[in-house]
């Protein structure tokens, strides 16, 4: 493990939204705006804005990083631009009645398939499946969360087939 | 009341780390889980979330991987694993031909890049 990989998230965060030059092993050099540093591998994710409105993303793996030099600070406009690059897409907006109906339809369908499901959270908006998986509005496969990967993929597959 | 039908459990083989947790218990990440100040944990989570979204954005896109000794290969980005051990790619272009699917070890990869629209 090298010095860069040994840094803490507090250190890595100082490089985010800055224009940097990354010196890597075998004399490689990379320049770009830091989008993030992966805490697991210490990989540096850089963005370079090209002339044709496209963005080039380069990821330098943590084990290959020798030195990171800050060249420039990003202003608010750049920070905004960088945060939008990987932003999740906006979903379709449902009304409260539509959401309630979707929730009840899904709950009924799960119960018909002998899958234990309860409602929890404020005004029962979250469905809790088998006690380990939760489904938030609007109750699609993407809104399922669980710490158990196997149950997560099974239930996601079921909901995908149902919708 | 109907008796719930038990869900079959799939027993997966042990992962490359041998502990089959998907990550090493001695890694800084796991050590941090045991006792890290809340502020650092929040930062760790935010940094990781951005990185994972980046991986999601890379899926299915043509990418260029820079390996050791000046070797560069082109492939379509598939996936990365939890412990940063390997990358899965499709249509890997090698001097011997195109491999439909392949694994690139993270220790062999120095950097990779792809274009976003």
Automatic annotation (TrEMBL), chain A:
- What CDD domains does this protein's entry cite? Gemin6 (cd11676)
Q: Where in the cell is it found?
A: Cytoplasm; Nucleus, Gem; Nucleus, Nucleoplasm
Q: Mind listing the UniProt keywords for this protein, alphabetically?
A: Cytoplasm, mRNA processing, mRNA splicing, Nucleus, Phosphoprotein
Residues of the AD domain: 69-163
* Origin: domain of life: Eukaryota
- Could you tell me which PANTHER family the record lists for this protein? GEM-ASSOCIATED PROTEIN 6 (PTHR14710)
Name of the protein in question: Gem-associated protein 6
Tell me which species this is from: Otus sunia (Oriental scops-owl)
Automatic annotation (TrEMBL), chain B:
Which ranges carry the SUZ-C domain? 1-27
Name the source's superkingdom: Eukaryota
Any one Pfam family match given in the protein's UniProt record, by short name: Gemin7
InterPro entries associated with the record: SMN_gemin7, SUZ-C
Tell me, which GO biological process terms does this entry list? Answer: spliceosomal snRNP assembly
Gene Ontology CC terms: SMN-Sm protein complex
Q: What is this protein called?
A: SUZ-C domain-containing protein
Q: Which organism is it from?
A: Otus sunia
From the broadest rank down, the organism's phylogenetic lineage runs: Eukaryota, Metazoa, Chordata, Craniata, Vertebrata
